[in-house]
Structure formats: structure tokens, C-alpha cells
Design goal:
Layout: H1 10-23, H2 35-42, H3 46-58, E1 62-64, E2 70-72, H4 77-99, H5 104-123, H6 126-144, H7 147-168, H8 173-190, H9 193-210
Antiparallel strand pairs: 1-2
Helix pairs in contact: 1-3, 2-3, 4-6, 4-7, 4-9, 5-6, 5-8, 6-7, 8-9
């Protein structure tokens, strides 16, 4: 983690830094969060750290264990499964809403993300492929124009990010993912909301058997 800069409030910066470290695995599940050490590393007082930890606790990224203090929460299989169930219901709606808001700029951005994702798969860069995956779905959320979908799924993706490295380790998984993304986006470009929504629903349902059991 880098020292913080004054572009956001110190609490927001501390939250962003800790969340990024948790989601990328720099701070691992079960690691204890020492407020004094974190304050020193981020060059802030304990107050922003404590406030950031309270926010992360409310969002299930960290938990209070009592004697051990606050630790990074274990990756929760039930939460992981619940997010996928929610996505299966909500992402087809996001696609339908997004189709009506497609612009030339959005099409260019989407094509670039898909090309980047395929390139990352071919080079074996799973971390970059995951970032491209997040960008693809994030584009659809923004294009949907629905603020609840965008805000809710942004947070859910941070939970998914913690576990997706295991999913992406399954041979051939990422290639299938990007073929499905391509089909979804092509339908969106054609203005075929029904087909795009159907393809997204199938994409979510196909994701279930692709998922590994966490810790298995």
C-alpha cells in the first residue's frame, strides 16, 4: 500500500487502500488488522483507519474476533453463491436497460474491453483478465442507467474478486467467458434486448458449474 494523497477524505482513502489490499490478496483472509501499523504504513492517524475498518466490517470484508481483534474475513462460500444467484436475476435486466442507451462511444469501449480480455487470456494474465471481466460488466451496469444496480454490483464484484482467482485457474474457463461476452455484446449492438438478456442469463447459469468450491 502507498502513502495516501489528499484527493479524497482520509477516511475514503484509507477505505480504498484497505479494500484494494484485501481484494487483491495483499492482506489475506485471517490476517489481523493492526490499526497502529496500518496508520504508519498509510501515513495517517488511527481515526481514519478505525472509520475505514468500521465500513469494511459493515460490508463483510473484515470481522471482529474478540481477543484477536479485527481480521480479514474468510471467503464465504454462501456469500459467493448468493451473489451469483443475485447476478442471475439482475444482470439480464441490466442488459435490457443498457441496450436502449448504447452509443458509438459505448460500443467502442465495449469492443476494446473484449479485445483486451481475450488478449489477457491468450497471454495467461489471469489477474488482468479478471480486471477486464469486471470492466465489461461494469460498463453494462453504467449503461443500464440504474444507480442501484451499479452501486450494488460494484460492491459485490469486490467480494467476487477475492475468490475469482480460483475460478480462473480452471483450464479453458476464461476463454469460454469471453466468447459469451462477445455474443452478449453483439446482441446489444444489434439492439436485440431480448436476445442479449437471454444470453446474459445463460452466461450467469453457465457460471455456476464453472465455479469451484472455495477451499476445496
Amino acid at each position: 500500500m502507498e502513502a495516501l494523497r489528499p484527493s479524497k477524505t482520509l477516511v475514503e482513502q484509507a477505505y480504498d487502500a484497505l479494500l484494494e489490499a484485501i481484494c487483491t490478496g495483499d492482506i489475506k483472509a485471517g490476517d489481523r488488522l493492526n490499526q497502529d501499523e496500518l496508520a504508519l504504513r498509510l501515513n495517517v492517524s488511527r481515526q481514519p483507519i478505525n472509520s475505514a475498518i468500521a465500513m469494511l466490517k459493515a460490508q463483510r470484508f473484515v470481522q471482529d474476533t474478540g481477543k484477536r481483534g479485527v481480521i480479514v474475513a474468510p471467503i464465504d462460500q454462501n456469500l459467493f453463491d448468493s451473489i451469483y444467484q443475485f447476478r442471475t436475476a439482475i444482470e439480464p435486466l441490466a442488459v435490457e436497460l443498457a441496450v436502449a442507451r448504447m452509443t458509438n462511444e459505448a460500443i467502442t469501449i465495449g469492443r476494446d474491453i473484449i479485445a483486451r480480455g481475450k488478449s489477457c487470456v491468450q497471454s495467461g494474465d489471469h489477474a488482468a483478465a479478471l480486471r477486464a471481466d469486471m470492466d465489461f460488466h461494469g460498463l453494462i451496469y453504467r449503461l443500464s442507467g440504474n444507480l442501484i444496480i451499479a452501486d450494488t454490483m460494484t460492491l459485490n464484484w469486490r467480494h467476487l474478486q477475492r475468490a475469482m482467482s480460483e475460478v480462473l485457474s480452471v483450464p479453458g474457463t476464461t476463454l469460454r467467458v469471453w466468447k459469451e461476452h462477445d455474443q452478449i455484446f453483439n446482441a446489444m449492438v444489434r439492439g436485440d434486448g431480448d436476445s442479449a438478456a437471454g444470453l446474459m442469463k445463460a452466461h450467469m447459469e453457465n457460471a455456476a458449474p464453472r465455479k469451484v468450491r472455495l477451499g476445496a
